[in-house]
């Protein structure tokens, strides 16, 4: 009796393992696309945010990105920060070596960029260093402020920044950041091991460095430079390939940010104490405690005051807890990411056939199933993305319009007409383009009279992946298009990208997402030579605009805006892909916290953060 | 006895080799690798390719396998791509957490199981027995992860008696009394949750063994000879009934290092189970293969231990 019971129990457990694995796989996959910090449209902030919505539909416009202070901060106090993650943080606590996002969340309290950003991700003069650029637009002089010191008292020097470039460009460097330094003059020779010094780096004096780049590029002034020095007096004697695992990175990480790392419990928590000599003045708080909180328990932890603030709240839980969590204020803004549906229009041709992963370019296939722009546009008209956002994300995601998202307020153009839900229009376009149902099976055939079955690839993950994919398939069915999931099911994350990258002929359209990062330059995603140009779309107009957007002339912001406006229009005309959903990011902050913000221009000014009382406010 | 152990070990060795090959080949079949997840427009496929080349991910599996097994024999399982540190050090960080959690769980399990099993078996079919049996059925029916979540919610958040995540409170220095105490506090709730559910099969085993043994001829003989009831139970019935439990003990030891995925996940407890799950999802192969090998070896040794314990308590089954 009991034997068979434990057998059943075992079977049941195995089943749960699978279920659990599947679930968390999805969480990773959906968000694994780059930076999470975001920016908001400041012109239409609403201050009242606890209004709640009776039909459970919310709008990001009702959230403020800045905390409303409720009282004067006390002297000192401890803040509890929750790092929402279903994995541990890896503990590679140096900007030059880390890869996982959780580590970035841990680092931001004790280290920071030498240059600060404004809300358009342009560099400002307000950070630990000031910069200027020469007439030619290729040489940037960075001058570190005199009072910027490492936590051990050593000044942050120009040679520390040069050292970071030398380590990242070194042949023995094991990380992925070479892209950040490759445009410096002389870097290729250095990387190849031909020289020991980098020609484009010139240390002017202890605090000043000149960096010369190969070409003028407007992105240099908008998050395009590597601005994280590496403490030379500490790392100097460590072999480069051992740096990421050394105690200097994992156990006693150093920075020049407002807080100093006190203790680290690997993977789960970190305590920080105030850095009294911080260059912007001593922090108001005495200390910060960071701990990893699972997404399943984050709402409880906020309710009990165990944590005061988190890096990012799981938005799907928001409708369940917004009434209950009266002790926190939810900040919100537009996330730097978008979901999209892409059409496969060609394939990737490597320059050297023996190196399929090497450099190459995109080749459009005029016979591709999705080659007709009318078909693509009709498919955009056929789907109601606002309904998807309301139904599955309670309005915290909403229909996207252009490919440069509103998180880039300078560049996003909301005046461009984009297709919105109109099935009649979709049908009309398809009729005109000759897609008609000739054999009476309820689905349209191609203009040549052949059967049209479109293969749709979509990732598994979370509760909503399947219903959303099904919704799209049904919406297209409404206008007479037969769309089927590739292999009849959703794909696991790794498999999905493997097949999309390899231009699997079974995939005609796919749903994926991009994190936009801070750089408005689109060449890395949509250029002719970009391997990440998964739709394999290329055109001369596109090449021209993308090149113009990154040219010397685009150092003029008005010119650059105009170029990217034209590019957004081009993408709406050509529809190689269309954004389906824009996203929001929510950050709950306990009412006792003052001075918190999630805007980019706030630049993680944790030294300004205070608390109004010793203990957290409870509901 | 020694001959038996040596013979068992000899059989064990090819098992482990086979297991390691199997693990390695299966890992190769998983779609994607540690770099697939880096769908970052900044990191070009060329850079990824260079890293793959340097990590040897492009070599055929048997070359990778020989490299790996060569290191593994000397205790070097390579570098974790995700954590950027040696796998051996990474496992060392986690294995203590899991070991203590499992040990405390094991102790709780036996503390609960032995008295309940004995009461239930001795007074079978009374209301007391029915209550205990009821509890065991409830235990069988309750999924561990739901039970753990409920425990966390009630005792962690509602009453606030226990810490709700992590293995130790932040900010304590290792080695201090506060540190040890905090570690113990963090263990209690997950261990208790696991023990309350995990113990029910042992209770059932013990009960049915006792009920079974009660009717044996030698018990009737013992009673006929005038042995007192407590002597009958303590000397005759119990000794025979704990056999299967002793046999299971070896298996339980295996659990000491493999940890449990649910509990560690729900309580945010960084142990081996959580490490394993994360590594599979992130395709951190060097960690996955090292862990599976470790779990495999533990399982094989656990079985060996079970056999040895059994042969000590029950001389009849010793292999000649």
From TrEMBL, chain B:
Tell me the Gene3D superfamilies matching this sequence. Answer: MetI-like (1.10.3720.10)
Q: Where in the cell is it found?
A: Cell membrane
Q: Which PANTHER family match?
A: DIPEPTIDE TRANSPORT SYSTEM PERMEASE PROTEIN DPPB-RELATED
Origin species, per record, is Oceanobacillus luteolus
**UniProtKB keywords:** Cell membrane, Membrane, Transmembrane, Transmembrane helix, Transport
Membrane topology, as annotated, equals: Multi-pass membrane protein
Q: Which Pfam families match?
A: BPD_transp_1, BPD_transp_1_N
Question: Mind telling me which SUPFAM superfamilies this protein's record contains?
Answer: MetI-like
Matching InterPro entries, A to Z?
BPD_transp_1_N, MetI-like, MetI-like_sf
* Name of this protein: Oligopeptide ABC transporter permease
């Amino acid at each position: 009796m009991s034997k068979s019971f434990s057998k059943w129990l075992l079977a049941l457990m195995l089943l749960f393992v699978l279920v659990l694995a599947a679930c968390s796989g999805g969480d990773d996959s959906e968000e694994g696309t780059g930076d999470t910090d975001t920016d908001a449209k400041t012109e239409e902030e609403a201050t009242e945010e606890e209004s709640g919505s009776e039909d459970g539909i919310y709008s990001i416009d009702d959230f403020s990105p800045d905390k409303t202070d409720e009282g004067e901060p006390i002297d000192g106090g401890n803040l509890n920060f929750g790092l929402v993650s279903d994995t541990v943080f890896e503990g590679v606590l140096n900007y030059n070596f880390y890869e996982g996002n959780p580590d970035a969340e841990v680092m931001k309290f004790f280290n920071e960029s030498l240059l600060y950003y404004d809300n358009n991700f342009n560099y400002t003069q307000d950070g630990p260093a000031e910069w200027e650029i020469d007439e030619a637009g290729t040489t940037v002089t960075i001058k570190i402020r005199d009072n910027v010191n490492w936590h051990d008292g050593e000044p942050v020097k120009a040679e520390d920044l040069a050292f970071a470039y030398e380590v990242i460009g070194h042949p023995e460097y094991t990380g992925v950041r070479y892209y950040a330094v490759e445009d410096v003059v002389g870097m290729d020779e250095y990387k190849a091991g031909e020289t020991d010094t980098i020609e484009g780096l010139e240390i002017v004096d202890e605090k000043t460095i000149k960096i010369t780049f190969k070409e003028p590029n407007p992105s240099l002034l908008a998050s395009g430079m590597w601005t994280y020095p590496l403490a030379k007096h500490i790392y100097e004697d460590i072999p480069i390939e051992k740096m990421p695992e050394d105690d200097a990175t994992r156990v006693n990480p150093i920075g020049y940010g407002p807080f100093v790392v006190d203790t680290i419990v690997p993977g789960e928590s970190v305590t920080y104490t105030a850095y009294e000599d911080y260059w912007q003045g001593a922090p108001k708080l005495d200390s910060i405690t960071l701990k990893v909180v699972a997404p399943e328990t984050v709402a409880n932890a906020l309710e009990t005051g165990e944590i005061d603030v988190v890096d990012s709240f799981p938005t799907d839980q928001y409708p369940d807890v917004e009434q209950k969590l009266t002790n926190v204020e939810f900040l919100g803004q537009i996330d730097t990411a978008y979901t999209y549906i892409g059409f496969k229009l060609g394939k990737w041709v490597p320059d050297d056939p023996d190196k399929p992963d090497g450099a190459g370019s995109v080749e459009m296939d005029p016979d591709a199933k999705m080659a007709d722009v009318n078909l693509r546009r009709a498919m955009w008209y056929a789907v109601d993305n606002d309904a998807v956002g309301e139904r599955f994300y309670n309005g915290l995601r909403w229909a996207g319009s252009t490919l440069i998202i509103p998180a880039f307020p300078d560049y996003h153009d909301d005046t461009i007409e984009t297709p919105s839900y109109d099935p009649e229009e979709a049908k009309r376009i398809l009729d005109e383009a000759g897609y008609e149902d000739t054999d009476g099976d309820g689905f349209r055939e191609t203009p040549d009279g052949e059967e049209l079955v479109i293969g749709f690839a979509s990732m598994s993950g979370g509760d909503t992946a399947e219903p959303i994919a099904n919704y799209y398939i049904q919406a297209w069915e409404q206008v007479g298009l037969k769309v089927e999931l590739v292999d009849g099911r959703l794909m696991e994350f790794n498999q999905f990208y493997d097949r999309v990258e390899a231009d699997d002929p079974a995939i005609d359209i796919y749903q994926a997402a991009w994190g936009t990062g801070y750089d408005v330059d689109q060449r890395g995603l949509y250029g002719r030579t970009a391997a990440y140009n998964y739709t394999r779309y290329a055109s001369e107009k596109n090449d021209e605009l993308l090149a113009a957007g990154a040219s010397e002339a685009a150092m003029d912001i008005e010119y650059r805006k105009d170029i990217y406006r034209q590019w957004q229009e081009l993408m709406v005309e050509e529809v190689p892909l269309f954004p389906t959903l824009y996203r929001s990011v929510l950050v709950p902050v306990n009412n006792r916290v003052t001075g918190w913000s999630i805007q980019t221009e706030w630049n993680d000014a944790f030294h300004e953060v205070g608390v109004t009382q010793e203990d957290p406010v409870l509901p | 006895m020694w001959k038996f152990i040596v013979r068992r070990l000899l059989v064990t060795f090819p098992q482990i080799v086979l297991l390691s090959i199997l693990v390695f080949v299966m890992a190769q079949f998983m779609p994607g690798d540690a770099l697939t997840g880096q769908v970052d427009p900044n990191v070009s496929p060329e850079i990824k390719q260079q890293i793959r080349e340097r990590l040897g991910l492009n070599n055929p599996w048997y070359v990778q396998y020989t490299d790996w097994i060569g290191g593994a024999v000397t205790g070097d399982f390579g570098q974790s791509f995700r954590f950027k540190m040696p796998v051996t050090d990474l496992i060392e960080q986690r294995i203590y957490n899991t070991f203590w959690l499992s040990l405390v769980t094991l102790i709780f399990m036996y503390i609960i199981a032995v008295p309940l099993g004995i009461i239930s078996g001795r007074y079978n079919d009374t209301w007391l027995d029915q209550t205990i049996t009821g509890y065991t059925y409830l235990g069988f029916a309750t999924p561990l992860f739901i039970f753990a979540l409920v425990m966390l919610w009630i005792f962690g958040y509602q009453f606030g008696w226990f810490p709700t995540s992590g293995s130790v409170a932040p900010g304590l220095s290792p080695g201090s009394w506060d540190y040890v105490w905090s570690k113990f506090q963090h263990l209690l709730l997950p261990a208790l949750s696991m023990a309350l559910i995990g113990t029910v099969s042992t209770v059932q085993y013990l009960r049915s063994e006792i009920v079974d043994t009660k009717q044996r001829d030698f018990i009737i003989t013992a009673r006929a000879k005038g042995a007192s009831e407590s002597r009958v139970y303590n000397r005759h019935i119990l000794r025979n009934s704990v056999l299967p439990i002793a046999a299971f003990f070896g298996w339980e030891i295996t659990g000491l290092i493999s940890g449990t995925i649910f509990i560690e996940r729900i309580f945010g407890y960084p142990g081996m189970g959580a490490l394993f799950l994360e590594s599979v999802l992130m395709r951190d192969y060097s960690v996955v293969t090292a862990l599976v090998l470790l779990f495999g070896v533990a399982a094989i040794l656990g079985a060996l231990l079970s056999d040895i314990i059994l042969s000590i308590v029950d001389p009849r089954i010793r292999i000649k």
